[in-house]
Amino acid sequence: MTEVEKPAQPVKKGNPFAGTEGIYLLPHHIKEIERLRGQHRLILSSTGNTLLTAPIKEKKPRVLDSGAADGTWLLDLQRLYPQYEWSLHGVDIGSALFPHKSGPYESLDLHELDARAPAPSNLGWEGSFDLIHQRLLIWGFQKKDWPAVLKNQLALLKPGGWIQLVETQWVDRDHPFDAAQYPNLAKQTTLQTWSTDVSGMDIFIAYNLEDHLKELGFENVSKRDFVLGYGAKAKEESQNRPSADLWIKTFTSFGERWPEGGIPGVAKTKEEFYQFLEDLKNEVSEVGYAPKISYVIGQKPL
Question: Which Pfam families is this protein grouped with (predicted)?
Fold first, then answer.
């Protein structure tokens, strides 16, 4: 986790989908906070307020959130699990989302770091954390980066400490959408697969996390799945339209970095793309979209 000096900025040259700082596919700036907080609330609603599945026994656990953004997950961890006296730490590739260190944020220790490289030795973090959490970075790392990222996190855990990885099976590899019945959801799969393929990312990482952890020597590896419902399949009826709107916001930035020739199988022009997003929003609101969100945990050997 190499410390970096500048906030993340949009990529201006090269592959328009290369992502922020050359690796992050989705927007990474202050405008993202609202969407990220909305996503967090939807996850809470869908999982019955479950933020933690790792069996933490320490009374004063030291936790690191990788991809912490504005610290929302850390603050809610403290709120929803008050039986612990948490020591809250977070890292992110860009500091643009970090809050001012005041009010409830005073308890957060946030650093701008690149998780693909080992953490700087001056932080003194090696072997110091009881829990490392990382969520929804499927569009944050290239496929080739995952082993190094997880190895770096293993080094930061105490013996017996836990890692918790939370990723979503955005594309169901076993049950694809019928294009005749769900034309826009089927086209969504094309978009998701294409966007990760051209950026070297792994749309199926949620299926592979257990194997990654076992290969690194983690023990007691297990997975717990929840349904992450959008639109008509949102767990709370009041979340139907808001969750459909939230889902579409995931893709709107693609139109701002439009690739020459368009997106194969999705749209040739920006206008076609934005119309597709509107049609997709309506389809999600009417029939729903319900991928599984996986909580995968593993324990560092004693």
Answer: Methyltransf_23
